[in-house]
Amino acid sequence: MQFARIFAKGVTGAAALAFLLACAAPSRAEPVKIRIGWIVSPASLIPIMFAKPGIAKHDGTSYTLEPIHFQGSNLQITALQSGDLDIATLGFSSFSVAVENAGIKDLRIIADEIQDGVSGWGGADFMVLKDGPIKTVDDLKGKVLATNVIGGGVDTIMKAMLFKHHLLEKRDFTEIEAAFPNMNAVLLEHKADLVTAAHPFEDDPGFQAKARRLFNTRDAMGKVELSFWTARTGFIAKNRAALTDLLEDYVRAYHWFLDPVNRAAAIQVASTFTKVPAKAFEGWLFTPQKDFYRDPNATPDLAAISSDIHAQKELGLVKADLDAKSYADLSLLETAIKRVK
Hints:
The chain is of the alpha/beta class and 341 residues long. It has helices at residues 2-24, 73-82, 92-101, 153-164, 183-188, 205-210, 217-221, 233-238, 240-258, 263-274, 279-282, 302-314, 331-340; strands spanning 32-38, 63-69, 88-90, 107-116, 125-129, 144-147, 174-177, 195-197, 211-216, 224-232.
């Protein structure tokens, strides 16, 4: 009996000590929930970038990632304004609209996603019929042109090329909208005289047999920043550590996806997510000449963004130029890159 009383006291004392120690220990902070927008994958790697185990070393510890699909950049801008999105993936055309038209002056560029018009790499092609009447850009006067979204980045590229040839929308040509999967039919059925082509749809043998490229992004505008990560200064200041961890994992993911050794596995990841056969990606995804350029360290070209926005201004699509350097905070990315190396 005496032993039992002593043992009970010992257990009680141990439990009390454990309780006191637990109370005294600092509570572990909950991971920061980061909501990030994306539009099209695998152009955007956001919804698949952590599919390979071991890449996201900080996911679930310092942050949790919630990818949110949007149909277009304008909806991401609205979500940023309402506080329903933390990171928006915007292109040069939507970024200028967000800052100038929507008044989100505290928006900052924090990382890159895809670039078009980079020498040695692929991108948007503007196609006409091989046996049609369009032989040069000048022949587009009075014709119908198809774009995915009027006023969007690819549309701006197309208009910039026509602007070089003194052709203006409404005065000299008409535009219609069509989704990328429908562009082939729009051209082959003579609903438009020029269409915007994109992989994997333009790779269709029937389309390739009857269509040819009239010009591409590089011809029109040179290097173009089609998509990059942006966040508001308040969110950056409040969550610098978690954002840096996310960017570290993002850079590590880019290194894995862009390594030729991993290409077959990377294509399979894209195929599984999109439910598109891997064969449809094999001829172009993550390869020069065909795919968009992705900077291995996700570093945006700020000079290109400024130049792209200047082209928008010349076309009358925005009222003022923007210096991208004044709207960028790459300090988190720079720290993240050093960690990965």
